[in-house]
Amino acid sequence: MAILGRNALLLLLLVCCISVCLAVRGRGEEEEVEEEHQGGKGGLFMLEKPKQVLKSEGGEFKVFRGFRRGRTATPMHIGFINMEPSTLFIPQYIDSSLILFVRRGEMRIGWIYKDDLVEKQLKIGDVYRIPPGSAFYIVNTGRGQRLQIICSIDRTESLGGGIFQSFFIGGGTNLHSVLAGFDIRNLATAFNVSEEELTAILERPKGGPFIYMRNPDQARRWADLMKLNHEEMRAEIARDENDDEDSVRDEEQTTMWSWRKLLNAFIGIENKKKRISAVKAPDSYNLYERGPDFRNNYGWSVAVSEHDYSPLRSSGIGVYLVNLTAGSMMAPHLNPTATEYGVVLRGSGSIQVVFPNGTSAMNAKVQEGDVFWIPRYYPFCQIASRSGPMEFFGYTTSSRRNRPQFLAGRSSILQTMAGEEMAMALDISLKRYNRFRGSQKEEIILPELLTRPETTTEPEIIRKWGEIRRE
Ligand SMILES: *[C@@H]1O[C@H](CO)[C@@H](O)[C@H](O)[C@H]1NC(C)=O
Ligand SMILES: *[C@@H]1O[C@H](CO)[C@@H](O)[C@H](O)[C@H]1NC(C)=O
Ligand SMILES: *[C@@H]1O[C@H](CO)[C@@H](O)[C@H](O)[C@H]1NC(C)=O
């Protein structure tokens, strides 16, 4: 192996980079250029017409694309991965980070963490982050059970051109392995196997991105091929270039080191067995096991920030889950620091969004599977239909503690601004203002109004509030 010198190594890296670039451009051209979007038929802030990005017999990956509207760009796409029982989502890496939420079923995820393969068993309610450029695979381990995963796809890290770019380590029908761009002889040298064996491995599997597993160890075999990471290779090249300026004395050592690192990164032949347990996989975080942050008779909510689950910090994304009882409402509020995405997990209801100038932007009926987004600063509320509870899950574009500002209810800013100034601003007497703001005894999650009291209705106040802000 040592005979493969520094130049050959550089050449190998170069070829690899070219092949990665080609893969990206090839995909990019298929994507629609259209970015502007008027929102779905259901409303301005509904994400509709999911695009199927990957599909084969064993499963599918579809994505609700975020879009740009005026100057409001949505930094995230929302993906749904569905896998049949006993299937494998073959090893690949993606040019964006994924924050997975296991909605149904159970799974095992394997990925490269600190140069080691780590595996983690995940169950319903678990949240888990895969960093960009990290090769991973997913196995549906639920017996006879379908696996459903919701994930955020962070577009700020992407190479551009499309929704995201998958780099498959293995080939398959209609999938081109990133390795296919290499000269077969160099590659065989790199893997220290014969060309025949390499060809045989790269041509498998034939089933596309989601394949049925004949034996559970198959995933591990694939794992051997997945230690290829373009970030690492770029870093490696940069390091080699810098080293050129150093004295030649170190050259041999550097070359040896680079080579060993690369070889390790490619396959890690030596401690293949040990690797699985060598490094502890980062923990997952279960949304259902953690007690709610807020709970009353009308529902509960949980918000997970980087303080609860540190991997979120790297993505700058938060996660939340809300359950409203039939007819209840999440009080009108706005997010001062984040844009929010939501997926209806169960039940049905409506989402109301108000422009910052106080006019209605959307009043949409939603049901299970619908995806919506709410721009930062826009006041909104979610209301469960009377027929049953509504559960929704989602992401926010900040991993810090999100402090929503409530516009109604006992903890609203109308309570905080309890003085005459607010009454004057709303052009009502202080007495009336006090009666108005004191009439709702609940906070955050509010009960259904069965008979409407005769005071000014909330939407009216919000509209007035908007008018004031517009000044
Ligand atoms: C390559 O494979 C041969 C035969 O299996 C082995 O003896 C040799 O040590 C391997 N070389 C490296 C660098 O792994
Ligand atoms: C949500 O609340 C309803 C009752 O309103 C309850 O039946 C359901 O189990 C709750 N969902 C979760 C996930 O706790
Ligand atoms: C409020 O803002 C929206 C979006 O910017 C705009 O379409 C609408 O015309 C505005 N309405 C008023 C009354 O200013």
Describe the structure.
This protein is an alpha+beta fold. The chain has a 7-stranded antiparallel β-sheet, with no helix packed on it. Strands 2-3-6-13-8-11-16 form a 7-stranded antiparallel β-sheet. Helix 1 packs across helix 5, helix 5 packs antiparallel against helix 6 and helix 10 packs across helix 11. The chain is elongated, with a radius of gyration of 26 Å. The chain starts with 5 loop residues before the first helix and ends with a helix. The N terminus is likely disordered. One 2-acetamido-2-deoxy-beta-D-glucopyranose binds next to loops.
Could you give a short description of this structure?
With 471 residues, the chain is an alpha+beta fold. The chain contains twelve helices and 28 strands. The strands form five sheets. It has a seven-stranded antiparallel sheet, with no helix packed on it. The protein has a seven-stranded antiparallel sheet with strand order 2-3-6-13-8-11-16.
